[in-house]
Amino acid sequence: xxxxxxxxxxxxxxxxxxxxxCTASGFIFSTYSFYWVRQPPGKGLExxxxxxxxxxxxxxxxxxxxxxxxxxxxxxxxxFLQMNSLRPEDTAVYYCVRDLWxxxxxxxxxxxxGTLVTVSS
Amino acid sequence: xxxxxxxxxxxxxxxxxxxxxxxxxxxxxxxxxxQWYQQRxxxxxxxxxxxxxxxxxxxxxRFSGSIDSSSNSASLTISxxxxxxxxxxxxxxxxxxxxxFGGGTKxxxx
Lengths: 121, 110
Prior knowledge:
Oligomer: heterodimer
Radius of gyration of chain B: 13 Å
Number of strands of chain A: 11
Radius of gyration of chain A: 13 Å
Mean pLDDT of chain A: 97
Strand content of chain A: over 45%
Low-confidence stretches of chain B: none
Number of strands of chain B: 10
Largest sheet of chain B: 6 strands, mixed
Largest interface: A-B, 22 and 23 residues
Mean pLDDT of chain B: 95
Low-confidence stretches of chain A: none
Distance between the termini of chain B: 36 Å
Helix content of chain A: under 10%
Helix content of chain B: under 10%
Largest sheet of chain A: 7 strands, mixed
Structural class of chain A: mainly beta
């Protein structure tokens, strides 16, 4: 079955960097697109970044453009979110989500359990 | 920017039917698929409806989705409400490379 395990969260000071990982299993990793979705404490969901199955297309939310970068390593079945110049408003649980269908992004479907990022001095 | 608007909260009694709306701010909501996610307290979201009205295996047939082009909105309907349906529900769609979520609706079953 589809398994997505996020890691790399923690407490970090404003202005610093953090890299999140999402390690996948139970399917052919290289054929699926992935999303990062975040949820600040007590608030709703926000799409952060998307990467196509082959890494050729990437999209970032305006709130993180120029600071966050999504990437993938198909040899390691892992998706990454490099987060630079972190701000207190980036504090959230970050979820890794896999598309339902193989190919380009179309339908966020399978969710990981999330990893908490806290930006605080 | 494209936005999806949901009611902040709804409540209904066990056994009844409730409908949660999700209204698009511009364009046609029928142009792209809408998904619905359920999030119980302390848990990650799970998909209850995908591609407007498709139900994943394992999701009760009490859950259904629809699109109304005249009101530019999508709806999630839950019939035969159970206390276990109490959760936050989010709609999600897509517009010009932006994957957008609604603000979420808290469903209370009392």
